[in-house]
């Protein structure tokens, strides 16, 4: 008998069997929860002390490297999770969403962290704003790790991805977490956590696991902590209203099940490719994870004249779906997560039938394939058709969290939008159209009540990731019934776990706090050209003020001939005189080239290559006879652990460049990024 254990305060905990957890495939007992009562006060204290201390020994870049190491280890051991995942009712295709999708999220955040986050544990969120005429007093914003714990309460449908998509952001942010998976499928989450511990990449106290109930956990939290929840809208409301969460203003983020839509535009006919593409999308969303997805399509809005044809197209596809044990050949849909879930879905379908009729699946489910499946939690697809799409209740209010969707007819696009809005806020809607004008009209209106919108046509379908696939770089969440929260969204997810603070002071003080050069701050000038220093030796604020160069008529003419840029402002004396500048001016890109000629050290050295150019602005025009000079200052260093093709270790240096004229006026401003070698032997 397997008793699942919690991992709290650095120990695996629990030995007395409590609730049995049955396989969704054949009803056999997979594991038991434990009956031992956890000490949640100790767990929270352990997270705030040990977890925070160990995480903040690492910086953003180092935590990103740990994420990648964990993802690689999990990838090597994924077959262990695949075997266990079968008992949740998941097919091999479902595992691509849950298990592989979870690992992919870790890889994505590891990559984003290395590319977008600095070394250190202070994230500067500019711009710096001068607050005085002579720039002695300025302000900016910083983001720093909160000194608390993130509590993640997850749903049963994605026991791996549901944990990892939240964990990736809080881990990068340097915040420890306590994960509470839904009990029904917690055996798979527990197995994943054990692998993460075995990877050796998880700092002590960074991740704790609860098997079973949360007891008085929420009462132990304070203002530095956070709670995130995924599940039903009703449970989200109860948690959000917890007295301690309200009284201490504890941040609460909810991602709730929503009544997502698919809309077929009036310009699409049964003969169009888009007609079949949307039918395929709907059936996929009904059957992947047996329809147990918060993003699944629950309402299908179709022009009235195509309602019968679209229903027939869906039925043709649904008739090919085979239920059964995922290990059996040919099975395309597994079981619901538990027998309790099967009862809930059946009850919801009965309620939906008060406002709709069943046009597929109403005559009972076929016997699922596989031994012992008669004891499993199988529930065949149900396609319903609304008898009154505008009636309150029904599919606009009731969600059958399984392979169930409801067809609705509409007259025009305004009516379709009104029907979609009756869902009171959704995670995602797909709009299938061939006409860009329809997309331009409908999408901005739908956006007010949706977290994500997909425009589907024959072109996008060639590479589309699908209606129901949240991507790490895109926001996941939605307004209203969908919970009003946000997850993922690239580095936005990391910022969610950081504290944003405005700071004021002199530019020198702001530079010291942010770890970045701020214009107006003290600079460090030495006899050594900054381009001659290795990454390791280069100091923030190290600066070079170049010699001067006078721009000539020949410079302007020669650059125009070389580049082919003969814009009138550079060559037409009469037209330029009538312009706002009153004279011919030099090309902006000539100024960039000239500035590079002023500050570049030409001999081979630690600077290996330009990496990019950011924040470029041309501010004051420069004409023949004007004299320019440049100031190059080391603004930021990012130690990404990269190596050049020849194996030379290197980092990224961001340089602040200011080009000024003879009157000390700023004429061009930008950041230049370079790859700079580290000293040999440094990795």
TrEMBL record:
It comes from the Bacteria. InterPro entries: Ald_DH/histidinol_DH, Ald_DH_C, Ald_DH_N, Aldehyde_DH_dom, HotDog_dom_sf, MaoC-like_dom, PaaN-DH. Residues 540-640 form the MaoC-like domain. This is Phenylacetic acid degradation bifunctional protein PaaZ. Residues 24-500 form the Aldehyde dehydrogenase domain. The gene is paaZ. Keywords: Oxidoreductase. Pfam families: Aldedh (PF00171), MaoC_dehydratas (PF01575). It comes from Alloalcanivorax gelatiniphagus. The lineage of its organism: Bacteria, Pseudomonadati, Pseudomonadota, Gammaproteobacteria, Oceanospirillales.
